[in-house]
Design goal:
about 25% strand; five-stranded antiparallel beta sheet; Uridine Diphospho-n-acetylenolpyruvylglucosamine Reductase, domain 3; 3 domains; Uridine Diphospho-n-acetylenolpyruvylglucosamine Reductase, domain 2; Vanillyl-alcohol Oxidase, Chain A, domain 3; alpha+beta
């Protein structure tokens, strides 16, 4: 009898523990797993379950499109505001083992909500703490952590040099972790990304050499959310002239029958312009001038040339004379100031 009692107690205890484990929710298991995988950098203060007060604050602060903060919008089970690479590794490993999807938010704007909304149970891995930009002018490169915006990349680059730049997007609030694009010089930013540091699906930290060229090619095709969690990018600079020239010309479809033809002509020549010249077209709906009750389309041609105004005027009038660009339209400024001009800030807006 004395032998049976301890055996019965042991079996009962094991049954209870197994039952408790099976009754645990995926979130509880995820949280426990994350605590075990975040040493020596404790993650407790950077882990925000849905019912916590800090969750509400972070969700409101970093949800840039508030339509996705409506009561009916899907909410993450938790938000992880990672402070160390071990937090990223733990989030990936623990989400995978508990069947929870990850949404990765790098800190820039996300109008579509792709980084913080999902139709299945998910957690948000928030990377905004990883925001350093380490500039190496001597070697013409810099390491950019994924939480930095491209505006911060431009600013820190210009702090160190007036003739180094990086071909990226026109919107300074875009996060470097998920977006780089093309402006002028027929150079895409992906051609100037020369290394990366990421956490793969198994929680391993990889660079270009260890991940291989196929994966390195893939992560540059629109962010790393599908192929790993990007921690940082290594980029190389391009050289720009000390002064660049910009212009902004607006044409109204209501008043100028030729405006439609201008857009068509721009479509024909935009990819054939001089490599230092870039012209963008934007459309807007405005009030009519002849009839206030009638809306019309305003077309804005915005240009950037890596050089002086008289050179740009000659090139534009040679390839796009229909635009009617005049010398008074051409404004010279340092390249860093042109990044604000492109985002429609007034001329003279401080860069800091």
């Amino acid at each position: 009898m004395s032998t049976i009692t301890p055996l019965w107690f042991l079996l009962t205890t094991l049954t209870f523990l197994l039952s408790a484990t099976s009754d645990s929710s995926p979130l509880e298991n995820f949280l426990q797993c994350l605590s075990n995988h975040s040493r020596p950098f404790n993650i407790k203060s950077h882990l925000h379950p849905k019912k916590s007060l800090t969750f509400i604050y972070i969700a409101q602060t970093h949800t840039h499109n508030h339509r996705f903060y409506a009561p009916t919008a899907p909410k993450p089970l938790a938000i992880v505001t990672a402070l160390d690479e071990s937090h990223v590794q733990g989030t990936v490993v623990c989400a995978k083992s508990n069947g929870i999807q990850i949404r990765i938010r790098s800190g820039g704007h996300d109008c579509e909500g792709l980084s913080y909304v999902s139709d299945v149970p998910f957690v948000v891995l928030d990377m905004f703490h990883f925001g350093s930009v380490d500039v190496d002018i001597e070697n013409g490169t810099e390491w950019v952590e994924t939480g930095a915006t491209i505006g911060e990349v431009y600013y820190h680059t210009a702090e160190r040099s007036g003739v180094h730049a990086f071909p990226g997007g026109v919107c300074p609030t875009v996060g470097a972790g998920g977006h780089f694009l093309v402006v002028a010089m027929e150079i895409s930013c992906v051609d100037n990304i020369i290394d990366a540091r990421l956490v793969d699906v198994n929680g391993n930290i990889l660079d270009r050499k260890s991940m291989g060229e196929d994966q390195f090619w893939a992560i540059r095709g629109g962010g790393g959310g599908s192929f790993g969690v990007i921690h940082s990018w290594k980029i190389k600079f391009v050289f720009v002239t000390p002064k660049v020239t910009v212009f902004k010309v607006m044409r109204n479809l209501e008043l100028e029958d030729g405006a439609k033809g201008l857009v068509y002509k721009w479509q024909l020549i935009a990819t054939k312009l001089h490599e230092d010249l870039f012209i963008r077209v934007m459309h807007d709906v405005v009030d009519g001038t002849q009839n206030a009750n009638k809306k019309t389309i305003q077309v804005t041609f915005i240009g950037l040339f890596l050089g002086q105004g008289d050179q740009m005027l000659s090139l534009v009038n040679e390839s796009f004379p229909e635009l009617g660009l005049e010398q008074s339209d051409c404004i010279e400024m340092p390249w860093i100031n042109s990044t604000l001009y492109w985002f429609n800030y007034p001329i003279g807006t401080p860069i800091a």
